[in-house]
Amino acid sequence: MYTPHTDSEREEMLKVIGVPSIESLFADVPAEYRFPRLNLPEPLSEMEVAAQLQELASINETTRDLICFLGAGAYNHYVPAAVDAILRRGEFYTAYTPYQPEVSQGTLQAIFEYQSLIANLTGMDASNASHYDGATATAEAAVLAYHHFRGKRTRFVVSPSVNPQYRAVLRTYLNGYENLEVIGDDVEKPFETAEDLLPLVDANTALVIVQYPDFFGRIQDLTDFAQKVHESGALLTVVVNPLALALFKSPGEMGADIACGEGQPLGIPLSYGGPYLGIFATKKDYVRKMAGRLVGETTDKEGRRGYVLTLTAREQHIRREKATSNICTNQGLMALAATVYMSLLGKTGLRQVAELCYHKAHYTAQQINQIPGFEVDLKTPFFHEFVVKCPDSVEEINEYLLDNGILGGYDLSNDYPALKNHMLLAVTEMNTREDIEILCEALKEYSHD
Amino acid sequence: MTEPTIYELSSPGRVGVRYPQPDVPLAELPQDLVRQDLPLPELSELNVIRHFMHLSHLNYSIDSGFYPLGSCTMKYNPKINEEMARLPGFAYTHPLQPIETVQGNLALMYELQEYLKEITGFDAVTLQPAAGAQGEFTGVMIIRAYHKSRGDSKRTKILVPDSAHGTNPATSAMSGYEVVHIPSDSRGNVDIEALRAACDETVAGLMLTNPNTLGLFEEQVVEVNRIVHEAGGLVYGDGANLNALLGIARPADLGFDIMHINLHKTFSTPHGGGGPGSGPVAVKAAFKEFLPGPIVEVLEEGDEELPPVFGFYQPTQSIGRVKAFHGHFGMMVRAYTYISIHGAEGLRKVSEYAVLNANYLLARMRGTYKVPYDRICKHEFVVEGVWDDAPEVHALDIAKRLMDYNFHPPTNYFPLIVREALMIEPTETETKQTLDRFADVMLKIAEEAHQQPELLREAPHSTPVGRLDEVKAAKELVLCCWLPEEAKN
User: Which of B177, B340, B481 sits opposite A49 (nearest CB)?
Assistant: First the structure.
């Protein structure tokens, strides 16, 4: 289909190679397994494929068709048109890893700017060029801490209010290491605060992981907590929603050693869960231990400023089995999306979006709290997500909401048995007051029925 | 020309996007938690567009020219893929939506799993891994879980040929294994005797790339896999080079147990300047229950009136999640589009022409460049970028000189078993004319290497910047820029 050869070109090429046919190029493949018949649908023209995919896509109900209050790690935000206009530049999306800096300055400078924006936003000294997503970035933080202490500290203390999927990935990643313990995330005590973890943090603890805002949307000042963690010599990782950092104190300011998290809120479409963007930033002491690619500024012979991949000796293609991570391909284009998004919104816009989320979420929470049978904790500070205690199972309520054109919140009983009938609702700048009122009306009707 | 950074372009008070005013009463902010400074740049939309347009012009890409980066399969990324991934029905779905609202997504994922099974011959597929390296990690953790499930705790080693990608040993190490390197023989195959000697009851498995990184089909692959199996080990297939095998041979038939597939290489999803990739993992039936879940299955069969109902299945002995949500769905849409356009016949043609193009280039360069393992290659080949009678010139110089002729350099200094390696993968989407131009230039550069070596040593001469000082970058370690004082409010 995308092979441009004419018959005569093919024959000329075979002649130059010195073989009679294309088949003869595969003489080294065992004959009994050679040229299997693949049972795949007949090839389609581009026009037919487009129609087929359009058909599949139209079966879905989207966050555009429904009023979306679903978050739990992926958020419905507005992406300005300019972001995709840049992402669609073939010069960016059809290039690969900038191993040859002289012909990759576009990608390299964009990553350098990404690193800068993330470092500024998180209050850290340096950011890498990205991990796969928030979950793997969190796992890589644990791997960093493990190697930082040369495997001598074996305890990892994780808050139960870290995203359940991130905790699952963290455990998978640490499975290859002998005798490590991952503790603290007792799902029977979902609302424990960071301080409740402190009794577990000892001289054998490599890393403490908390989330901010946490999985339930709550925010708390972690400054004292960070100090106490450091008193036992452990490192502190704060898993962040980068958008919240436009409004609230950064993990760097509060004393975290590593900030990681999901960059999807920064201009990346929901796209059914990926590709997203793993954010990873550290204080300067850990820069050389950070996995993944790093871009550094330098000059050429003429003194012109330029950018290169740097500290590559940490990486798998150089260190092979001594590398601390096997990461190679990262989320380059998603990092570019976040860079363009943050550049466009800038200081004012990013803060404005964060404030819109905050105010709308609080309004929604207050309204829901007034509906008989529904309850929201309005005393604990939160960003744009909050827990609603419901009169019935979330599954039933969500079915009712869906019938009314609403994509309800996340069913927390999936991960926390103690949170039967608890729903996690997210509100963003995309939700108008009318949306919120429709939601509240539906919940009222539900509680009357 | 140097492009200023977004921080240097910033001007206090400038705004790029306007948002609506709040339509709800304002809530009180927790003042002790509110951030005081936000040192981000301030630009207009046009500032931003021009800036990134200027940056884009500093990049080489497949859309702008020939990109024979070995092992990376830099084939054309069809534009229709991009359109399909952006269909609102796909792009605006949330990963945690109830399954009844995303049957279109699940149908696509299910079909893609089926296609990948058919193409590779395996019995089950997870689409979750984010990239090839994560696919490898998934695969090796499955090997680990498999042995453990059988109470076999003696197996502490993974065998890795010396021609392997760096990710293979790195993956083995991060999965808790000791790495044992297996040498290659004079034909570029795994050295069978060395393999036999290394195979015992401590071997958990072998990670094998076929065709290998020399671009050569592992001539005794069936025997290699048999030897590992006899010792009780499993064979992991690194699918980086699957572009040579579509409709040519199915890795499962050849004896592989587990394999990852790079959607961003073989199935044309774009490389994005470094990612995102997508690295589904395929396994034989015996290993299905170890896959990271959930995977997509048919919950209720369809009939003439109703389509099947798709949902998720959680494998019973899963190694656990490797990634949040369901993998890189956007990449799956692109790969599905690509496979649908090709069908069986088209996919076979992809591999046939990828191999034809590589052998043609090899034939044109042979004689001028030394080919250390010289036989019919598959989708790529490796030559030496050095001559005894031009000792000042190295592979790196050839790579840089190619830029002056407006080509992207091949992969260099890999695989490690070839001196001054240049690893060339033309892919099937290039015309004979492009290959001829590239071959002509490679021959010309060989001539220059002998007659005007300084031309190569100083290359590139025509790029936006010259060779950059990597030592300085690592020493000074400037990894971010900050808002200049005058741009602060």
Answer: B340
Q: Which residues of B touch A306 (CB under 8 A)?
A: 2, 465, 468
Classify A96 as helix, strand or coil.
coil
Task: Give the ipTM.
Answer: 0.98
Q: How many CA atoms lie within 13 A of B289 on its CB side?
A: 6
pLDDT at B483: 75
Q: Tell me the backbone φ, ψ of residue B53, rounded to 5 degrees.
A: -65, -45
Q: CA quadruple B81, B84, B85, B86: dihedral positive or negative? A: positive
Low-confidence ranges of chain B (pLDDT < 70): 1, 485-489
Query: A107: burial class by Cβ within 10 Å (0-12, 13-18, 19+)?
Result: buried
Question: What's phi and psi for B303, nearest 5 deg?
Answer: -140, -165
Q: A190-213: b or e for each residue (b if 16 or more CB lie within 10 Å)? A: bbeebeebbebbeeebbbbbbbbb
Residue B101 has its nearest CB partner, among A38, A61, A99, at: A61
Q: Nearest to residue A64, comparing CAs of B334, B103, B90, B325? A: B90
Question: Measuring CA to CA, which residue among B237, B295, B268, B262 is closest to residue B130?
Answer: B262
**Per-residue model confidence (pLDDT) at position B2:** 85
Residue-level pLDDT at B426: 98
pLDDT at B294: 87
The whole-angstrom distance between residue A104's C-alpha and the CA centroid of its chain comes to 25
Nearest to B240 by CA among B219, B215, B223: B215
Query: Using the beta-carbon criterion (under 8 Å), do A38 and B460 form an inter-chain contact?
Result: no
Closest-approach residue (CA) in chain B for A124? B480
CATH homologous superfamily of A67-78+347-448 equals Aspartate Aminotransferase, domain 1 (3.90.1150.10)
Determine the 3-state secondary structure of B369 from DSSP: strand
Phi, psi angle pair for A200, to nearest 5°: -85, -15
Q: Which residues of A touch B482 (CB under 8 A)?
A: 116, 120
Domains of chain B, each with CATH number or no CATH: 59-463 (3.40.640.10)
According to the model, what pLDDT value does residue B485 have? 67
Closest-CA distance, A29 to chain B, in angstroms, reads: 7
Break chain A into its structural domains and give their ranges: 67-78+347-448, 81-341
Total CB pairs under 8 A between chain A and B: 674
Helix axes A433-448, A394-403, angle to 10 degrees: 120
Q: Could you say which DSSP state residue B449 is in?
A: H
- Compute the Cα dihedral for A313, A318, A320, A326 and give only its sign: positive
Residues 6+ apart with CB under 8 A from B56: A86, A89, A91, A92, A106
- Which pLDDT score, from 0 to 100, does residue B488 have? 57
Mutate to test the interface with A, among B3, B9, B18, B24 (most CBs of A within 10 A): B24
Residues of B in contact with A436 (CB under 8 A): 24
Say which DSSP state A42 is in: P
**CATH code reported for the domain at A81-341:** 3.40.640.10
Q: Is A101 within 8 Å of B465 when comparing Cβ atoms?
A: yes
Mutate to test the interface with A, among B2, B92, B216 (most CBs of A within 10 A): B92
What averages of pLDDT result for each successive group of 10 residues across chain A (449 residues)? 95 98 98 98 98 98 98 98 98 96 98 98 97 98 97 97 98 92 97 96 98 98 98 98 98 98 98 98 95 96 96 83 86 98 97 98 98 97 98 97 98 98 98 98 92
Helices B103-120 and B329-365 cross at an angle (nearest 10°) of 30
Nearest CA in chain A to B82: A88
Q: Which of A39, A49, A329 has the CB atom closest to B275's CB atom?
A: A329
- Name every chain A residue with its beta carbon within 8 A of the beta carbon of B408: 100, 103
pLDDT value at residue A317: 82
